[in-house]
């Protein structure tokens, strides 16, 4: 029996040696070649300066992470608000600015917003299990800025460290914001209690609805586009809420389970509203990727075009080495001199940027995706 086993092992070794090394090399080369062919005009080009904003050990409020940036462009400058986690594990919001959109002086970052500004949660809300971005202390997460008129609005995820994950709305005058006088209006919670919500954004201009120009908040893209309209944002006073898709919703089971939600505030283009969003793929459910769609300019509940492949995937080291590897997560995008700048978080730790020629990007999106107009009513 021992002799037979020895002979069998020897035979296996011989068989293994007979596999030519050149065959293995050809297989590897082929895989790399296929991956390179995947690039197209729809892919965003990363800045060689990435990551553009990183944690600073000397600042207690952002010693661990500085990620998920949002942005507005005004008077030749890009203004960034980003989520930061410091020594206390509490999430706050930092500020940075740039003239070229990619170079940010790490020495001139400032604390722009903290949980101390936020409206208190009701202590009667049930406790939930929630951990986000390596922080457990709660605070202000994943902001979306929108410049509308002379006001800068911000919607963000508010989490108190033990209760429900809710959406909050605040604002500041443009003059105060660019002057770094962070006199934010007292925020109000705009999603219902005892529900988990993320990824909401305000449109950067009013949309005609029912014969009137109204403010519009986009709060879901699956299983359908969901937008709530308001004559005045003052209607959201902390007692009136926007009802969206959540685990207790009747729409929860019919949603696309791979779609995570929208990214930056929508961008108005000649083809319609450009919306970037986060989605995973069936074969890589552990990797957050960025996709793009175009919504009808007059009725943004209609999807005109939708990308058939991701426009940005977590392939670089700074998108994989952090609190959550395999993540690109965008909260901000601006257009500067015809170029689309997309700001995103890498691995829940750093802030990055990727760009594209906007016109070429849109033409490719329209051409490659074909018409995706959705008129089916989902209830």
Structure description:
This protein is mainly beta and 379 residues long. 13% of the residues lie in helices and 37% in strands. It has helices at 2-17, 21-36, 174-178, 358-369, and strands at residues 45-46, 65-74, 77-85, 91-98, 110-113, 139-148, 151-159, 166-173, 188-189, 201-202, 207-209, 212-220, 226-230, 259-262, 267-269, 272-281, 284-295, 303-306, 328-336, 339-346, 350-357. Strands 14, 15, 16, 17 and 18 form a five-stranded antiparallel β-sheet that branches. The longest helix is centred in the N-terminal third of the chain and has 16 residues, at 2-17. The protein is globular and about 50 Å long. Pfam families: Glyco_hydro_130. Keywords: Glycosyltransferase, Transferase. This is Glycosidase.
In short:
The chain is mainly β.
Features:
379 residues, Tachylectin-2, Chain A, 5-stranded antiparallel β-sheet, 37% strand, globular, Glycosidase, glycosyltransferase activity, Mannoside_phosphorylase, Glyco_hydro_beta-prop_sf, glycosyltransferase
Rounded mean pLDDT score: 86
The percent range for strand residues is 35-45%
Shape: globular
State the fourth-level CATH superfamily. Glycosyl hydrolase domain, family 43
List the helices and strands and how they pair.
Elements: H1 2-17, H2 21-36, E1 45-46, E2 65-74, E3 77-85, E4 91-98, E5 110-113, E6 139-148, E7 151-159, E8 166-173, H3 174-178, E9 188-189, E10 201-202, E11 207-209, E12 212-220, E13 226-230, E14 259-262, E15 267-269, E16 272-281, E17 284-295, E18 303-306, E19 328-336, E20 339-346, E21 350-357, H4 358-369
Antiparallel strand pairs: 1-21, 2-3, 3-4, 4-5, 6-7, 7-8, 8-9, 10-12, 11-12, 12-13, 14-16, 15-16, 16-17, 17-18, 19-20, 20-21
């Amino acid at each position: 029996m021992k002799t037979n086993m020895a002979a069998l092992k020897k035979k296996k070794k011989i068989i293994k040696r007979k596999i030519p090394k050149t065959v293995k090399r050809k297989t590897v080369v082929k895989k790399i070649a296929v991956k390179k062919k995947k690039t197209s005009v729809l892919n965003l080009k990363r800045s060689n300066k990435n990551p553009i904003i990183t944690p600073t050990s000397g600042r207690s409020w952002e010693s661990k992470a500085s990620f998920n940036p949002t942005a507005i462009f005004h008077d030749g400058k890009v203004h960034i608000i980003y989520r930061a986690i410091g020594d206390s594990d509490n999430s706050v919001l930092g500020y940075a600015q740039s003239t070229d959109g990619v170079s940010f002086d790490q020495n001139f970052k400032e604390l722009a917003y903290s949980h101390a500004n936020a409206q208190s949660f009701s202590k009667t809300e049930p406790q939930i299990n929630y951990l986000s971005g390596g922080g457990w202390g709660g605070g202000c997460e994943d902001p979306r800025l929108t410049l509308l008129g002379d006001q800068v609005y911000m919607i963000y995820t508010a989490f108190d460290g033990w209760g429900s994950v809710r959406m909050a709305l605040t604002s500041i005058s443009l003059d105060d914001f660019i002057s770094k006088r962070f006199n934010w209006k007292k925020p109000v919670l705009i999603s219902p209690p005892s529900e988990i919500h993320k990824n909401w954004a305000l449109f950067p201009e009013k949309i005609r609805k029912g014969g009137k120009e109204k403010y519009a908040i986009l709060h879901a893209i699956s299983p359908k586009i969901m937008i709530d309209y308001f004559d005045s944002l003052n209607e959201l006073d902390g007692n009136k809420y926007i009802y969206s898709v959540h685990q207790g919703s009747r729409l929860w089971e019919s949603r696309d389970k791979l779609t995570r939600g929208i990214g930056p505030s929508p961008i108005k283009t000649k083809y319609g509203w450009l919306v970037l969003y986060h989605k995973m793929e069936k074969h890589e459910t552990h990797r957050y990727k960025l996709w793009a769609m175009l919504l009808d300019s007059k009725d943004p509940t209609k999807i005109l075009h939708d990308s058939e492949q991701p426009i940005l995937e977590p392939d670089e080291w700074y998108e994989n080495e952090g609190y959550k590897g395999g993540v690109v997560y965008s909260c901000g995008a601006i257009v500067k001199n015809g170029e689309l700048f997309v700001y995103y978080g890498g691995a829940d730790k750093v802030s990055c940027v990727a760009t594209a020629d906007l016109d070429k990007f849109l033409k490719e999106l329209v051409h490659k995706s074909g018409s995706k107009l959705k008129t089916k009513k989902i209830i």
